[in-house]
Amino acid sequence: MSHDAYRRAASVNPRDAEYRAFAEATGLLLKAGEAGRNDLKSLIDAVHLNRQLWGALAGDCADARNALPQQTRAQIIALARFVSSYSSDVMRKGESLDPLIEINRLIMEGLAARAPAA
């Protein structure tokens, strides 16, 4: 799912669209990790898509109209900043993709959890 597709889908069912976007980004990171530095294009594409996803989330959380609690929004923005910084380390220093994959998986678990019935 492209960045634009994420935004279009988010207007229909945001939680499911976010889950799908994270699933796609995480899948690409996993494939890039398996290929290692032998497939630099896959690595660049995966890291770029993941960084775009997190950038979109940070932008949404920076919007005063966002209904999430302020603390949650701040934590998501902090995670997005880490993802961006660490992504640079992956590309420049050859750091492992594992932290990015783990963060995405944790977010996916949270998105998959359903709120209890009222």
Describe this structure as you would to a colleague.
The chain is 78% helix and 0% strand. By secondary structure, it is mostly helical. The protein has one domain (3-112). Helix 2 (14-35) runs antiparallel to helix 5 and helix 3 runs antiparallel to helix 4. The model has no long low-confidence stretch (mean pLDDT 89).
Summarize the structure.
This protein has 118 residues and is mainly alpha-helical. The chain is built from five helices and no strands. 78% of the residues lie in helices and 0% in strands.
Please outline the helices and strands.
Layout (H helix, E strand, L loop, with lengths): L2 H8 L3 H22 L4 H23 L7 H24 L4 H15 L6
Search tags:
118 residues; mainly alpha
Number of strands: 0
* Helix-strand category: mainly alpha
The percentage helix is: over 70%
Q: Mean pLDDT across all residues, rounded? A: 89
Domain count, please report it.
1
Radius of gyration computed on alpha carbons: 15 Å
Q: In sequence order, what are the helices and strands, one letter per element?
A: HHHHH
* Low-pLDDT residue intervals, each spanning 5 or more residues: none
Helical stretch tally = 5
State the major sheet: none
Measured between the Cα atoms of the first and last residue, the distance is 33 Å
User: Which percent range describes the beta-strand content?
Assistant: under 5%
Gross morphology is globular
